[in-house]
Amino acid sequence: MAETMKKLLASCLIALSLPAQAGQIEVLHYWTLPSEIASLSLLKSELARHGQRWKDFVVPGGGGESAYVVLQARAIAGDPPVAALMEGPIIQEWASLGFLAAPYPPAREKQWDAVLPAAVRDAVKYKGRYVALPTDIHRINWMLVNPAPFDALKLPVPSSWDDFFKVAPRLKAAGYMPLSLGKLDWQETTLFENLLLGLTDGAFYRKVFVEQNSAAINSARMIMVLERFRQLREYVSPDAGGTGKSPELAALRNGRAAMFIMGDWAKADLVLQGMVPGKSLRCLPAPGTDGYFIYGLDSFALFRAAEGESAAQAAFADVLMDPKLQSELARRKGAIPPRTDASLGGFDSCGVTAAKDFRDAEKKDRLLPSMAHSMATSQQAREVFFRVLSYYFNHPEQSSQQAARQIDAALQALRS
């Protein structure tokens, strides 16, 4: 957060004394995919049943960068929304500045403690209090597979990156795009974090993305991962023969592309488009990542409110934290519910597997926060990875050593 925000915090809190429209909850978010829109309709209807109206404040942009810029401007002006979608360490940053509320009875928070995994609690609590409400957990290291190209060529689906580089030339020679990929930097970086984990291990993943360790970033292992990343250019396409708003999804659905590495919201949208998990669509761990679970967590933070509004905010929390709602919300978004007591009834095979894999990874200390999806580091550090990795991926004149040094130097500058 900029120092300006700290200086203007007092004026913001004065403005919060102005009453909001009764029964109305303005929520800033960036959910615009079909599965996300379906989830929003559920939230809105549940709030309406409790006498509250959801007022949309949507800022498009899958990674949330634009939304956070708008949120900062609104907060500095003393006019924040009632709630905002947030992910990862940015929750702690807003809480440390005094913007976020925790209008819940301590007894209620103890109940949440009993049914939320430690990784979830750590992400949404500040100084022992809940300052955000977790709604769904996404698995980032899914490889979504259309089995038709593999069946046609009698090829095995790769479980390691060595296997991938064996089958990819054969898929390409037969006219298939081995790996679908979107055009945006966060999509490229999602692929990179999966590749890095699949070629190394969880300890190295944490050193690079969580600790941002200079020795790891400049190591021979990192150079090897970067060079493999560039080799993927031969087997991916921003379009892959697909059309429409999300050509990377269309390419997988129509069989033009064989694989797509992305979070499970992509699975939810493919299901809405007619693909059937376990039949026309398979969900497998990204190559080399079996046993690990790279996670993203959607949460809604509540902002400090005018006097007398905390009861309405607490009611909002009751709706979002209801286990039945969390179950249905996660099912619609392709995710899994944060609450361990939420039912998995009606979940497809991908969702049931994700829930089991999350629990297994938690027991073995193999849960890893996604850098590409805001869980592992600050927004500024995330932007460093986005910009450097995207430039490197698309500009072969830059060496892998130069890219590693650039990442390290930019991260060090943020810390100075």
Automatic annotation (TrEMBL):
The keyword Signal applies. Transmembrane segments: none annotated. It is found in: Periplasm. It comes from the Bacteria. Keywords: Signal, Transport. It holds the Pfam family SBP_bac_1. Residues 1-22 form the signal peptide. The keyword Signal applies. Belongs to the bacterial solute-binding protein 1 family. Part of a binding-protein-dependent transport system for a sugar. This is Probable sugar-binding periplasmic protein.
